[in-house]
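=== RUN LOG ===
request id: a7f3
mode: sequence -> structure
chains: 1
length: 112
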Amino acid sequence: MAARLVRDLVRVRPKPFLIDVSGAAVFVLCTVASSVDVLTEVRMARALEHLAQGRTTIAIAHRLSAAMRADRALVLENGRLVEDGPHATLVAAGGHYAALFESWVSSTATGT
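=== RESULT ===
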């Protein structure tokens, strides 16, 4: 359903597709940074941080780098909330988030 809505919006709207968010109090974003290079991800993150200032932002992230910037991360497993808290707290807790983070750090350091 969401994919169809996006296709319809893209078909109807002329490019570039711009949305006025100046009056929005809440953002709900699904980050698509998992398919872009690191430099583009950093640029996107900076732009989103600027847009999100003073607003509640819910970001569905697929990269830990996005979760690390959040005030609070919710970790879901099989559709159930298993962890909740800021990055440092979740890493210290040694649960699912910490395991993902350690794996990410390890693979980033070794380039694998």
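=== NOTES ===
Residues 23-62 form one domain.
Strands lie at 26-30, 56-60, 73-77, 80-85.
=== END ===
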